[in-house]
């Protein structure tokens, strides 16, 4: 089965690399056999190591702003607010960039992980103050959902396919557009009623949106797993291990955000 990557440039790159490695030797000017230059290829282990590093960076950055917001000190909260804003801008910029080109630069990957960690930590502290224990539950839920989706993919209970890819990608663009519209509207003081505020009473529409986005976040891991597996099998250059790690890290962060929101709905009055 041809690789169904979410990024066409990655798919084309993998095919090109595969052809270069399997075409064999070429004749030189005097009939000598010359071997094509070999490129160090990525392995699944490379993706795992990089993912652990990015998730670790996210966690460390989150602890920083979590402690600052949780301290209640006005100066610390103000500093945390600036860091969270910076993290949100960096994260949004990298995500938009990743829609057009795979992220293979480790500095960009870490900038995203740290930026999201700064934002995640501060917001988590706010949710934890209002709903004690919600952060631990959201973290545990993220780990369990990820492990469950990995098991479903590993045992081929869930498989990627062209139709599955189109549905997930189409829904992803829809979710991104919905989020951006809600963000722009909120900047102008308008409330579209798509997401309930912490402690509010969610409407039926808000429940549907929260559950739908959380399910999308879970099932999108199937595309990431397939991309990583197929890329490794087809001999993608090692630098693309960062693209795989970035995808998994972004997916974990997005899943955590949505589980945090969904759990707050269950605890709302």
Automatic annotation (TrEMBL):
The keyword Transmembrane applies. The chain crosses the membrane at residues 47-69, 75-100, 107-127, 133-155, 167-185, 205-228, 240-259. InterPro entries: BaxI_1-like (IPR010539). This is Bax inhibitor-1/YccA family protein. The keyword Transmembrane applies. It holds the Pfam family BaxI_1. Keywords: Membrane, Transmembrane, Transmembrane helix. It comes from Glycomyces paridis.
